[in-house]
Design goal:
Elements lengths: L1 E6 L2 E7 L5 E11 L5 H12 L8 H10 L4 E9 L2 E11 L2 H16 L10 H16 L5 H13 L21 H14 L2 E7 L3 H11 L23 E6 L5 E8 L7 H13 L6 H9 L5 E7 L4 E8 L4 H16 L5 H16 L5 H13 L6 H9 L3 H7 L4 E9 L8
Parallel strand pairs: 2-6, 7-11
Antiparallel strand pairs: 1-2, 3-5, 3-6, 4-5, 8-10, 8-11, 9-10
Helix pairs in contact: 1-4, 3-7, 8-11, 8-14, 9-10, 11-13
Length: 419
């Protein structure tokens, strides 16, 4: 990847590859996640997606995409670490003229919205507020996802990471077409902006096109700090809540203190594969298969915070047994109680996962964006080398300081239980 500064706080990330017959372009507007901004960020990309001055309806946008040989277009907000990122993405067939038109299209969408009386179109804003309200309400319908979100909210309640990336229903009444437009102007002026392009592209022509098409108005660019992955767990949190569920949802958050770059991080990923990250893991085989103590169980790593999250569906009556077995399996890995087969399976699983990143333009973009945000210069081949050089001691060391921070349990009110 080659990174070129275009304007103050605007970087062009060129990832040249001949692997695809398409060119993918994303414009990413980065914000430190804040409670009072989260819902504004969650709505804004979808309002802009509805239309611009040149293409002032979804129908006209779709016609334009068809004219660009069936280009795909998406806008959304993503939470990455302690950032909310407004993403505007377009992918079309490879071709110089079409690529130029893609950049023009994204410029129109992002920088020339429909403005009426110093505000966005009211019906568009109201429509997206209703859509977001329905989306937030749907959280409760997915109890597994809800429990995971509540775990992070409680575990990181004093950290930006604990803020919901898709906004809050109680903030919707505060948002209108005028203050959302004011916020839009503010973030375009002061936010770091990354333009990422993946495909068989000419660097000089691409820089020329972008400088010709995009006219950025820049002020003092905000600084976005790295998420803090260090920890000091003083008291373990144990939280239980009631809900209309037939199956208890157990989520456990563990702090690792591992820097999210370098060999130690990939050793942690390998440890997680052994612990709960695969169908061959300790948690899956021993807790679910052998002892039938849960309906499902798995673990994964939040990279930017170096947090391991365990998710499980259990009967409330098995709460103690499951917690005890999870602790037992974690202690076992800390002591090196895993065999060569489990070690090799973990390494091969990681190799497979990272080797597959290059199969999709979106996977490549996501990978290099994370690397850039973490100031990590390693490319995919470098990381594959790091993984191949992990040994058993690296894995043991990576989990040596892991400790449980928060246990969250969502269960039915008639099964209220206190440990």
């Amino acid at each position: 990847m080659n990174i070129i500064n275009i304007e103050k706080g605007v970087n062009l990330h060129l990832i040249k590859t001949e692997k695809f017959n398409t060119i993918a372009t994303a414009i990413l507007v980065r914000r430190s996640i804040k409670r009072d901004e989260a819902t504004f960020n969650a709505i804004l990309p979808y309002v802009l997606k509805r239309g611009c001055m040149k293409y002032d309806s979804l129908r006209k946008i779709n016609i334009r995409l068809e004219e660009m040989y069936g280009a795909t277009f998406e806008s959304c907000v993503i939470k990455k670490g302690e950032e909310q990122i407004l993403q505007f993405f377009c992918e079309t067939v490879n071709g110089e003229n079409i690529f130029f038109e893609t950049l023009e299209f994204l410029n129109e969408i992002l920088f020339n919205p429909v403005i009426i009386n110093n505000g966005f179109k009211k019906e568009w804003v109201d429509g997206e507020k209703e859509n977001l309200k329905n989306e937030i309400d749907s959280r409760l319908n997915n109890k597994k996802e809800y429990a995971k979100q509540r775990l992070i909210e409680e575990m990181c309640k004093d950290e930006p990471f604990g803020i919901y990336g898709d906004g809050y229903k109680e903030d919707l009444d505060k948002i209108n077409e005028k203050n959302l437009y004011e916020y839009y102007i503010k973030i375009l002026n002061e936010s770091p902006i990354e333009i990422m392009i993946v495909g068989d592209i000419n660097e000089n022509d691409t820089v020329k096109y972008i400088k010709e098409i995009f006219k950025f108005k820049r002020e003092n660019i905000i600084d976005i700090p790295l998420a803090d992955y260090n920890f000091n767990v003083k008291n373990k949190n144990n939280i239980q809540e009631n809900a209309d569920v037939s199956q208890g949802k157990l989520c456990i958050g563990m702090r690792t203190g591992i820097k999210p770059v370098g060999k130690s991080y990939y050793a942690l990923l390998a440890a997680n594969e052994i612990f709960g990250g695969s169908a061959n893991s300790k948690l899956f085989v021993n807790v679910r298969e052998k002892n039938s103590l849960c309906y499902y169980i798995n673990s994964f790593v939040y990279r930017f915070k170096s947090i391991i999250c365990i998710q499980s569906g259990i009967s409330p009556n098995d709460y103690d047994k499951v917690i005890d077995m999870i602790n037992k399996e974690l202690d076992g890995i800390k002591k090196g109680n895993f065999n060569d087969s489990e070690f090799k399976s973990a390494i091969s699983g990681l190799i497979k996962n990272y080797s597959g990143i290059g199969d999709y333009t979106t996977g490549i973009m996501d990978f290099y964006l994370a690397q850039y945000m973490l100031n990590d210069d390693n490319n995919l081949n470098d990381i594959l080398d790091l993984i191949n050089n992990i040994d058993k001691n690296d894995i043991i060391e990576s989990v040596s300081n892991i400790c449980i921070d928060t246990i969250y349990f969502l269960r039915s009110s008639e099964n209220a239980y206190k440990r």
